[in-house]
Request: fold
Amino acid sequence: MRKKRNNHDEHLNETWLIPYADLLTLLLALFIVLFAMSEIDATRVAKLANAFNIAFQGGSGVFEFERPIPPDSALPNVPRSRQNDRRLSPEEQAQLERINQEKSQLESIQAQMDAYIRENNLQPYLSTVLNEEGLKLLIGEQALFPSGSATLTPQARDIAGKISEILVRAYPREITISGHTDNVPIHTPQFPSNWELSVARAANFLAAVLQNPNLDPKTFRIVGYGEYRPVADNATAEGRAKNRRVEVSIEPLIALAPPKGNGR
Reply:
């Protein structure tokens, strides 16, 4: 009797292992499904669900879908950001090729500008930026004008001459030369406000650039923004120095934003 009772007690002590093992298995399955869903791939989720249905419930259970998962085209709420099957139409493919060609040409012009800046140690005063809006050359006031003046220095005329040679390659793209100031008020007989100062600086720099007979004046325009397009904080002397500048902006021949594709 003692031996029989001991076997019965051992059997009772081991019965908890079965539901515990089932629980661990279900938790593992849950985490696998959650990981798969985080990948935003409905097809993979459906396949995993079917596999777990067969493994755990013989085709029915908590992972069962009442109807088949529709194809991707019928799932408007499923993000497609991780899918690699986007296709471009022939027109979009041609547009993408033109965009890449335009970027390559602007990058070549930028490389020339950057080389000139490095060779003449002008990094503190000149810099370039290339983005979807086009290619932009930023020229600090110190490299062009005396403080509060729109008269070009001899160094500024040299810079304008070199930049004009590079801008020949930008044709027929439109080019905007814009003048900018800090927010310190100015009130002189020549410049009643920063508006007049910024316009005069842009106009004088353009006049120096157009000394190059190989440039077409029809592709240029000037803008004066005064103090209203800052690139730095006017609260510091360093920030105000950055805001006193002339910008040469080369507009791309085609919008540089790539086509999104039709998702087929």
In short: The first helix runs from residue 2 to 14. The helical segments are 2-14, 17-38, 42-57, 90-119, 154-167, 194-209, 237-243.
